């Protein structure tokens, strides 16, 4: 049985800490800072076993160097063909590996960046800045078409899969989800839950794939009514990828 805890960093990053059944070792995902990870390990009396990196951005990788210095035996897993070069095991599509007795499979999910990968296993997905609860990452390097293809990776997962993304963006995302899906009762119900949690500074993650399939406008772009889009964002191309691109452009200015 694995347990996942959130280590907070910066304004809204979560560094996910995965613990195996032996309860001594921890694997962290996307350590954008080392200090909060050191503090967590000290407080919990645990040691670091490995690091998983989803993509090269500084707020996901800055802690790696200091953590590797303090724990030289650890393995850093990360994407192949990445500008981030402090990776020990470079991973690509469908590669598999095991940490803390948990088997993970890698899927490439370009769009936010071209090197972005996700880690899928033991009923969880660590999806970095690709899928957020109620939203998706901005297109810094890839195309809308690529990101829409990446969304299909998540749509294919079991509904019970727990979704661990890197940022607490859910509240703002749900405002957009409500604007783009005014008749979706699941969106309005979840938005109320999220507002209540955030008012008490409670973490809204993990989400689940089943929930995201019902509420996330980017995951269900093919279901969005064209009439919900403001006229200036109505797509040229009336297909799912075209609607996805239009939603992303609208959200960028929302
Ligand atoms: Zn990023």
UniProtKB/TrEMBL annotation:
Binds 2 Zn(2+) ions per subunit. Pfam families: HAGH_C, Lactamase_B. It catalyses: an S-(2-hydroxyacyl)glutathione + H2O = a 2-hydroxy carboxylate + glutathione + H(+). Pathway: Secondary metabolite metabolism; methylglyoxal degradation; (R)-lactate from methylglyoxal: step 2/2. GO terms for molecular function: hydroxyacylglutathione hydrolase activity. Keywords: Hydrolase, Metal-binding, Zinc. It comes from the Bacteria. Zn(2+) 1 binds at residues 55, 57, 112, 129. Its cofactor is Zn(2+). Monomer. Belongs to the metallo-beta-lactamase superfamily. Glyoxalase II family. Thiolesterase that catalyzes the hydrolysis of S-D-lactoyl-glutathione to form glutathione and D-lactic acid. This is Hydroxyacylglutathione hydrolase. It comes from Pseudoalteromonas qingdaonensis.
């Amino acid at each position: 049985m694995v347990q996942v805890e959130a280590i907070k960093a910066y304004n809204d990053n979560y560094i996910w800490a995965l613990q195996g059944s032996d309860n001594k070792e921890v694997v962290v995902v996307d350590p954008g800072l080392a200090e909060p990870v050191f503090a967590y390990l000290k407080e919990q009396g645990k040691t670091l076993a490995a690091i998983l990196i989803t993509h090269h951005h500084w707020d996901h990788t800055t802690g790696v160097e200091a953590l590797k210095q303090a724990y030289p035996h650890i393995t850093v897993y990360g994407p192949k063909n990445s500008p981030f070069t402090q990776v020990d095991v470079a991973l690509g599509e469908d590669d598999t590996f095991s940490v803390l007795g948990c088997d993970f499979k890698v899927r490439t999910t370009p769009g936010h960046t071209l090197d972005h990968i996700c880690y899928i296993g033991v009923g969880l997905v660590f999806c970095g800045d690709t899928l957020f609860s109620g939203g998706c990452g901005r297109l810094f390097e890839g195309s809308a078409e690529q990101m829409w293809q990446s969304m299909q990776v998540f749509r294919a997962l079991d509904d019970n899969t727990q979704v661990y993304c890197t940022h607490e963006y859910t509240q703002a995302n749900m405002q957009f989800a409500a604007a783009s899906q005014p008749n979706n009762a699941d969106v309005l119900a979840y938005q109320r839950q999220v507002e209540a949690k955030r008012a008490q500074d409670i973490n809204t993650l993990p989400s689940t794939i089943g929930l995201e399939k019902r509420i996330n406008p980017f995951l269900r772009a093919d279901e969005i009514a064209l009439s919900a889009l403001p006229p200036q964002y109505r797509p040229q191309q009336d297909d799912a990828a075209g609607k996805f691109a239009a939603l992303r452009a609208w959200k960028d200015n929302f």
